[in-house]
Amino acid sequence: MRVSYTVEAMARTDVQLMLDVKAGDTASFELLLQKYRTPLVNFLYRMVRDTATAEDLAQEVFLRIYRARKEYFAGAKFTTWLFRIATNLALNSIRDNRHQRMEVSLDAPAEEDEAPIQVAAREMRIDEHMIERDRAEFIRRTIAALPEKQRAAVLLHKYEEMDYGEIAKVLDCSESALKSLLFRAYETLRVELAPLMAQPVGNRAGEGRLQ
Amino acid sequence: MKCEDVSKELIVYLDGRANPAERRDVAEHLASCAACRARAEEFRKVWSVLDEMPGQEPSLGFDARLRQRVADEPRPGWFQWFVPQPRLAFSVALLVALCVWVSRLPRDYSTTATLPSPVTEQQQFQVIENLGVLENYDVLSKFDALSELPGPAEPAQPKDETKPENSGGM
User: Fold this and answer.
1) What angle do CA A64, A66, A67 make, to 5 degrees?
2) Cross-chain residue pair A209–B63, CB shorter than 8 Å
3) CA distance B58 to chain A (A)
4) Rounded CA gap, A85 and A69, in Å?
5) Predicted interface score ipTM higher than 0.85
6) CATH 1.10.1740.10 residue window(s) in chain A
7) Sign of CA dihedral A60, A63, A68, A69
8) Cα dist. B79→B37, B75, B76 in Å?
9) A98 min Cα distance to partner chain B (Å)
10) Which of 1.10.3720.10, 1.10.530.10, 1.10.10.10, 3.30.428.10 is the CATH number of A117-199?
């Protein structure tokens, strides 16, 4: 069932699908959902670091797309629109969450998992026996410790493989500013992930485009 | 090309999205700068490490939950033609409010446009200045126009009628 969805969705462009949704075809909306729900949940999970929140936000993104279907026009790239909504929702969620935690911390001592992420990531034990899950958690925490806009830029560049113009539109900045943003982010990751780079896991070489 | 100039273009170069000119400039610099070459190699390793992070699959109930929420959305029907869109409703309300406001403006508003201007004050001053002439009986008796007036010539009447004449002479 899912395979047939994917084939049909790939045969029609996102713009065509969205124009059909605009015309009242809910089946086309279903195809867009099947095509983008995993990348969207992935992106949001890496942004907010919470499965339930990521799913709630992904639902909200699709719902907003559906509600705004009448305003869609063919010139707008669907993925730019989709990830722009997602990024804005994620940034708002992170800020709201941070605000709530600040309010709590005024009344109660900080819990262990509320310690700065960067410190926690640094304190993780890194040795040759580090298992795959620990490495993944280390990477996740290191990415999460990046400033929000740098984090979004890295996720869209590395995992969604968007081009620079599209990422710049999603983040509402110039391409030149985006290049600086990405350089600073990767420079931080280069330093923070150095322990993992020194002990690569041989049987897990990534197959992504950016290698 | 300096190291700081290369740093901005290094990511674009490494991910293969640089244009030919940028690509040539960065490649030339890397060939001659060991520090930037080492950094470029480390960026490649960073990308390789980032691939280790697994993705997050949506939960099994994700689709069903979203379908339900979409189904709960209000459907457009024939009656929606009569339901104004928010933007349109706001525009119409604004227009109506503007019309009401304009219609409630005082009717004699135009009089404020003819408030005593410096010119009319000057005219009035000239009437006062010529008062001596107007009160001079010899002048009035020789004024032909007054003889054409019907009825007895009141002293006050010529005073009023001369007003535009005086103003016209200005």
Assistant:
1) 65
2) no
3) 6
4) 14
5) no
6) 1-114
7) positive
8) 67, 10, 8
9) 23
10) 1.10.10.10
- B55 contacts A42? CB cut-off 8 A: yes
Domain locations in chain B as residue ranges? 3-50, 116-168
User: Cβ of A93: how many Cβ atoms within 10 Å?
Assistant: 19
Residues belonging to chain A: 211
> Per the structure block, which two tokens stand in for B29?
């610099």
**Could you give the maximum distance between any two Cα atoms of chain B, in Å?**
118
* Residues shown for chain B: 170
Q: pLDDT tens-digit profile of B129-168?
A: 766 666 676 766 676 666 676 665 555 554 444 444 444 4
Top CATH class of A1-114 equals mainly alpha
d(CA A77, CA A26): 19
The answer to whether B1 and B25 are in contact (CB under 8 A) is: yes
In A, minimum Cα distance to B70 occurs at A63
A118 contacts: CB under 8 Å, gap ≥ 6:
A141, A142, A145, A192
**CA gyration radius, chain B:** 45
Structure-token pair, residue A121: 């990531």
How far apart are the C-alpha atoms of B144 and A23, rounded to whole Å? 88
Structure tokens at B116: 């005593």
User: CA-to-CA distance for A169 and A153, rounded, in angstroms?
Assistant: 11
CATH 1.10.10.10 in chain A is located at 117-199
Q: A126-162 pLDDT, tens per residue?
A: 555 567 788 889 999 999 999 999 999 999 999 999 9
Sequence-separated (6 or more) residues with CB below 8 Å from residue A8:
A31
Distance to chain B for A44, nearest Cα, Å? 9
Query: How far is Cα A58 from Cα A48, in angstroms, rounded to an integer?
Result: 11
